[in-house]
């Protein structure tokens, strides 16, 4: 039986085929060349960690999710981006997937225009064409979910991100994916490796995932702990495991005062 990740991959392939039929590679590249220059996503995280000795925050603009349904009804991406920036976030993550997250490409463009922070396009990449599309939308970083791509596609996506001057967050959830990610970034000094504490197939969340995989992360990679982080104690736990950055959505999106909640989480 197919699970949610398989279903997302299936509709994404159809969606990308339709987008590619409407906008050729040359046309999407022309749009990408017109976009505002990349802001340096990994560098922003590394700089903040160097300055503070604490994990830097990637704050996520997330309206809904398959595991939680609607998370935030009062949803204004530019206002949320500004609240995150004032609260101390180093980068943003913006969900652009519509069917499962009620996201939209326009949310990324609008959020990025409202702040000076680098932005991750949080979507499911199954084709290198989507990398140029992400850049055309203004993204500074793309997501490569190792569970969703084979090694060849992962390498193509990473090469495309590099070609466009973008960073790539390479997401893992188990030791096998971490080993594949380590091979993928071998010889590079700009690796950004994520450990998702949530299984995207069962939705089970366990911070021990970061603790278990951190030791397997390649030397020199900047490690990002993703999902299920609600309290400063959670932050301290993944920091102790070696995380230099955090990706947080739900716990901040559920707060009335997002700026204060962001500050409190990082305190
Ligand atoms: O969040 C989900 O339910 C989900 C389901 C299937 C695929 C991906 C999913 N989430 C993407 C993420 O990784 C999170 O949005 C991100 O790490 C933030 O997590 P959280 O702080 O727990 O909202």
Offer a concise description of the structure.
By secondary structure, this protein is α/β, with parallel strands linked by helices. Helices cover 47% and strands 16% of the residues. The radius of gyration is 17 Å and the shape is globular.
Describe this structure in words.
Keywords: Amino-acid biosynthesis, Aromatic amino acid biosynthesis, Decarboxylase, Lyase, Tryptophan biosynthesis. Its EC number is 4.1.1.48. Pathway: Amino-acid biosynthesis; L-tryptophan biosynthesis; L-tryptophan from chorismate: step 4/5. Pfam families: IGPS. The chain is built from 13 helices and ten strands. It is α/β, with parallel strands linked by helices and 267 residues long. The protein has a single domain (4-266), classed as Aldolase class I (TIM Barrel, Alpha-Beta Barrel), CATH 3.20.20.70. Strands 5-4-1-10-9-8-7-6 form an eight-stranded parallel sheet. A two-stranded antiparallel sheet has the order 2-3. Strand 8 (192-196), helix 10 and strand 9 form a beta-alpha-beta unit. The radius of gyration is 17 Å and the shape is globular. The site of the ligand O=C(O)c1ccccc1NCC(=O)[C@H](O)[C@H](O)COP(=O)(O)O has 19 residues, from strand 10 and helix 12.
Largest sheet composition: 8 strands, parallel
Which ions and ligands are bound to the chains? Answer: the ligand O=C(O)c1ccccc1NCC(=O)[C@H](O)[C@H](O)COP(=O)(O)O
Question: Please, how many domains?
Answer: 1
Report the CATH architecture.
Answer: Alpha-Beta Barrel
User: What is the element string, with H for helices and E for strands?
Assistant: HHHEEEHEHHEHEHEHEHEHEHH
By DSSP, the count of extended strands is 10
Helix/strand structural class: alpha/beta
Distance between the termini: 43 Å
Beta-strand content: 15-25%
What's the arrangement of strands in the largest beta sheet?
5-4-1-10-9-8-7-6
Task: Please give the CATH class.
Answer: Alpha Beta
From the spread of the alpha carbons, the general shape counts as globular
The CATH superfamily is: Aldolase class I
GO molecular function: indole-3-glycerol-phosphate synthase activity; phosphoribosylanthranilate isomerase activity
EC number: 4.1.1.48
Keywords: Amino-acid biosynthesis, Aromatic amino acid biosynthesis, Decarboxylase, Lyase, Tryptophan biosynthesis
Pfam family, one: IGPS
């Amino acid at each position: 039986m197919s699970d949610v990740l398989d279903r997302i991959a299936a509709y994404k392939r159809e969606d990308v085929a339709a987008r590619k039929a409407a906008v050729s590679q040359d046309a999407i590249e022309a749009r990408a060349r017109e976009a505002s220059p990349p802001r340096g996503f990994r560098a922003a995280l590394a700089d903040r960690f160097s300055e503070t000795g604490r994990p830097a925050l990637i704050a996520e603009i997330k309206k809904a999710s398959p595991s939680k349904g609607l998370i935030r009804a009062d949803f204004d991406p530019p206002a949320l981006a500004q609240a995150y920036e004032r609260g101390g976030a180093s980068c943003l993550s913006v969900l652009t997937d519509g069917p499962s997250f009620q996201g939209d490409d326009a949310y990324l463009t609008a959020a990025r225009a409202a702040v000076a922070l680098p932005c991750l396009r949080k979507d499911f990449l199954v084709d290198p064409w989507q990398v140029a599309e992400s850049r055309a939308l203004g993204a500074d970083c793309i997501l490569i979910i190792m569970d969703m791509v084979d090694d060849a596609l992962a390498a193509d996506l990473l090469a495309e991100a590099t070609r466009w001057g973008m960073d790539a967050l390479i997401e893992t959830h188990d030791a096998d994916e971490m080993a594949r990610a380590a091979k993928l970034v071998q010889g590079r000094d700009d690796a950004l490796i994520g450990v998702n504490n949530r299984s995207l197939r069962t939705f089970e969340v366990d911070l021990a995932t970061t603790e278990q995989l951190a030791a397997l992360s390649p030397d020199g990679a900047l490690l990002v702990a993703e999902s299920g982080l609600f309290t400063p104690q959670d932050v301290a736990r993944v920091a102790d495991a070696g995380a230099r950055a955090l990706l947080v959505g739900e716990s901040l999106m559920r707060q009335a005062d997002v700026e204060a909640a962001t500050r409190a989480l990082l305190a």
